[in-house]
């Protein structure tokens, strides 16, 4: 091929195959990557800098004196050694993981049941359920926790009164928030009650995309309601369920405000702390900002570990 032909090939983007047929090379457009630059820059500024600050702080001695202008001293991994050799930290980690996984699974299970129910009931019942779920979801967090504190109050709570009326006299004046197990029971009820509407509405939106023609063909072939649900509907909405389960795991692992507001009602703080509350106690309560930064980075890694299988599953589903 001559130099002139080379220049023509570069200009037109064509090369000649063995049979003499010109083959056009597929060029990757640069416009999509250029449009991504503002979003990537915003993520780097909004998320990258705080993570960078946490990493640097976790490697320093950063406490109350540094808040008043004293220069921080670099101490390497001493903060990690000090924090993660404390048995209390691993107790908090175990409670946080158990609380996260149990609540996420129960929330998705209840949300799935409500979504299937909304698909089966008449229109006016479905609309009433959706309005009720939206109202529950829109309730401010502080108001929702306050209502649950009133319900489980040891002196004037409705729950204790109901149990007494049912013959459980031993629960008269029982302090639900003073016991660790019943504290987390109440906390789980709060978290699940506030999360189920999002899950139910999200899965119901996925259920509405299931083709009626597919369901009708299954009925004609003799499939029953249970077979249609588990062999047709569930596989089709599995990506939606995986996404909401992933989100619930992330949100429930980082829960803070609900636990803190319930602790203010008289719960034993050291025994009912989860990771978010433990970080708060380290940083704001003890002025140990370096230790709080170390635990915060651990929570970031733990979140990625717990969500990793679901992320891989979603990537496989997207590639299929």
Automatic annotation (TrEMBL):
Cellular location(s): Cell membrane
A Pfam short name: BPD_transp_1
Protein's membrane topology: Multi-pass membrane protein
Claim: Cell membrane is one of the keywords in the record: yes
Keyword annotations: Cell membrane, Membrane, Transmembrane, Transmembrane helix, Transport
GO biological process assignments: transmembrane transport
Keyword Cell membrane: yes
GO cellular component, one term: plasma membrane
Domain ABC transmembrane type-1: 93-310
Listed transmembrane segments: 33-55, 96-121, 133-152, 180-207, 228-251, 289-311
Coiled-coil regions listed: none
Family: Belongs to the binding-protein-dependent transport system permease family.
Entries under PANTHER family matching the protein: BLL4140 PROTEIN, DIACETYLCHITOBIOSE UPTAKE SYSTEM PERMEASE PROTEIN DASB
Name the UniProt record assigns to this protein: Sugar ABC transporter permease
């Amino acid at each position: 091929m001559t130099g002139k032909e080379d220049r023509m090939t570069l200009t037109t983007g064509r090369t000649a195959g063995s049979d003499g047929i010109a083959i056009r090379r597929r060029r990757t457009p640069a416009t999509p990557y250029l449009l991504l630059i503002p979003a990537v820059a915003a993520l780097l500024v909004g998320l990258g800098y705080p993570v960078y600050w946490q990493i640097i702080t976790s490697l320093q001695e950063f406490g109350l004196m540094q808040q008043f202008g004293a220069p921080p001293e670099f101490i390497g991994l001493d903060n990690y050694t000090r924090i993660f050799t404390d048995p209390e930290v691993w107790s908090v980690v175990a409670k946080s993981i158990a609380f996260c996984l149990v609540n996420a699974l129960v929330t998705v299970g209840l949300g799935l049941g409500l979504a299937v129910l909304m698909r089966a009931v008449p229109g006016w019942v479905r609309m009433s359920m959706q309005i009720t779920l939206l109202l529950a979801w829109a309730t401010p967090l502080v108001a929702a926790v306050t209502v649950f504190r009133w319900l489980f109050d040891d002196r004037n709570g409705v729950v204790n009164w109901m149990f007494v009326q049912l013959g459980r006299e031993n629960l008269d004046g029982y302090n639900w928030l003073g016991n660790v197990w019943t504290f987390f029971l109440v906390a789980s009820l709060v978290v699940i009650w506030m999360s189920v509407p999002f899950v139910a509405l999200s899965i119901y939106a996925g259920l509405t995309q299931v083709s009626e023609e597919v369901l009708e063909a299954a009925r004609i072939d003799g499939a029953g309601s249970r077979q249609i649900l588990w062999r047709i509907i569930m596989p089709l909405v599995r990506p939606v369920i995986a996404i909401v389960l992933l989100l619930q795991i992330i949100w429930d692992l980082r829960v803070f405000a609900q636990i803190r507001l319930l602790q203010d009602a008289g719960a034993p703080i050291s025994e009912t702390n989860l990771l978010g509350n433990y970080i708060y106690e380290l940083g704001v309560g003890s002025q140990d900002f370096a230790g709080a930064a170390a635990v915060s980075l651990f929570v970031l890694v733990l979140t990625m570990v717990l969500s990793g299988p679901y992320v891989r599953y979603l990537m496989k589903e997207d590639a299929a």
